[in-house]
Amino acid sequence: MEVPTMQVEIDLFSGRPNPVWNLTDAEVSTLRARLESLPTASPAALPDRLGYRGLRASPLEAQPATEEPPSTNPIIAIEVGGGVIRLTRRDGTAVHLRDTGRSVECWLLTVAQGRVDEPMRESALADLGSACP
Amino acid sequence: MLKITADVFSGRPNPTWIVEDLDEIRAVLSDVAKVAGSASARAAEEGKLGELRGFYVDVASDQLAADQGLDSALYLPFKPGGTGPMRELAERFVSLASDESVAMGVAAEGLEEAQALSPDLLRSFLGEKLGKDTGITEADANAAAAAEEAAEMSAEAAVAVTCYIELGAYNPGFWNNNSTVRSRNNCYNYASNKRTDTFAQPGRGCGRMYTAITCAEVTRAALCDGLHRRYVCFPDSEKPRYLVALVVAPGPGFVDFHWYRKNKEGFWSHKPGSTAARNTDNSGKVITNPQTCDRGPYTQFCGYFYTCRSQRIR
To answer: Of A49, A53, B101, B137, whose Cβ has the fewest other Cβ atoms within 10 Å?
Structure first.
């Protein structure tokens, strides 16, 4: 049985918890490939307001950071929203990418179908307007 | 391992809590280094009885402390009513007093239950010490009752009432600077000014969480937690009594609730879910009236309420 390695959260609510689901290994690979194809960008803000803001993907870690300093500096968060992607590493540093055509955002919301409440997913998609095919 | 001790008592043991997350420790020590000019290795304890005089900080790993140019045992004096980096650091220390870290502190000090403050009490006690002189009490009068329309209003609304409320200082740093506090506390936590790290839901504290997201049902759940509708007064024993507002996004599709709280500075502030607390609306304008500000999809205004000290929240 596949053990999920990455979860995605749609960041839209204020009071209720956000919906969360897991990516399959194949989807994680696709996400990685999509991110690698995007141009880097100077730091920019992601949408930060009441209502749909974007998505956040994070690796599911086996251990919290209580051991002596790890030798790697992995990405611990992938935040996507409004055409901006922010990759944050364990040491707190961040790299920004341009989500051209909001393609990664669209793809993640499309993948979410069947895994989250459908009217809620559609309300998030509506925010992207014609950006999502 | 990082041990933080608040220098606040003289007879009973000082409250202690322990942080183990390495990333958190590094971040805190980096902030400590910014105020390191006022730090010393075990200063004499000055300051009045009953005040928060300072913090002891003990770092188990010499290397972590040395990385920031610090001794591994420090005393940071605190001035009541102070502002600036030391105050922000003090708030950060208090924000690290989670249930888990307080329990570890109690265990490490070998305290008995009777000697130790519960995590909730510790946080509100220290929060109060930090917040001293930064909040005000104000009259909240139902002026509408004096109007000519009073005769047509319900009996409850028509009675002229003056309740007393507290307006706390706008303090977004407490909610925003620590990623655990920011991500695990929502609009309801913020409006109530009570950190639980549970993404608190109305009604869950009293055991009857909302079963639908409508003004009526979320109101019912909030009243169950102990809030009162506006103009149903709380006595002084329930200080702080914050004035808050509830709004709902009715959908279709996007269904949710949201809360605002009035601050001493005269504006209202809020915290949309895991995002940062702020005093501006969706148009970037400072919020002077939650009924008329830009609330995005939260189009239904449900009403005003008072929170209270004994509010259950989880």
So the answer is: B137
B47-50 own/partner pairs: CB under 8 Å, 24+ apart: B47/B7, B47/B77, B47/B78, B49/B10, B50/B8
Mean pLDDT of all residues belonging to chain B: 87
Mean pLDDT within A35-43: 95
Q: Determine the residue among B20, B189, B244, B275 to mutate to test chain A binding: the one whose Cβ has the most chain A Cβ atoms within 10 Å.
A: B275
Task: With respect to residue A99, please indicate whether it lies within any of the assigned structural domains.
Answer: yes
Cβ contacts of B254 on chain A, cutoff 8 Å: 12, 51-52, 120, 123
**pLDDT digits 0-9 by tens, B45-55:** 566 667 888 99
- Cα B61 to chain centroid distance, Å, stands at 31
Q: Does A43 touch chain B (CB under 8 A)?
A: no
Distance (Å, whole) CA B23 – CA B179: 11
Q: What angle is formed at CA A18 by the lines to CA A16 and CA A21, rounded to 5 degrees?
A: 145
Q: How many domains does chain A have?
A: 1
Q: What's residue A107's pLDDT?
A: 97
Taking the Cβ of residue B274 and every Cβ of chain A, the question of whether any pair is shorter than 8 Å is answered with yes
CB B89 within 8 A of CB B95: no
Unique residue bearing structure tokens 């940071």: B76
Question: How many C-beta atoms surround the C-beta of residue B215 within 10 A?
Answer: 16
- Residue A20 contacts B where some CB pair is shorter than 8 Å: no
CA of B90 to nearest chain A CA: how many angstroms apart?
22
* Confidence category of residue A63, pLDDT binned at 50, 70, 90: very low
Q: Is residue A121 part of a domain?
A: yes
Nearest by CB to residue B186, choosing from A15, A49, A90, is A15
Q: Identity (one letter) of the amino acid at B35? A: V
Three-state secondary-structure class, residue A90: coil
Q: Indicate the range of B40-49, B67-76, B158-167, B292-301 predicted with least confidence.
A: B40-49
Range of the domain at A102: 6-60+74-125
Determine, yes or no, domain membership for A69: no
Nearest 5 degrees, angle CA B243-CA B247-CA B249?
A: 165
Name the more confident of B283 and B100. B283
| Contacts A–B by Cβ distance under 8 A | 83
Alpha helices (runs of H) in B141-205, residue ranges in sequence order: 155-158, 172-176, 179-184, 187-192
Write the residue in A18, A51, A64 that is nearest to B254 by C-beta: A51
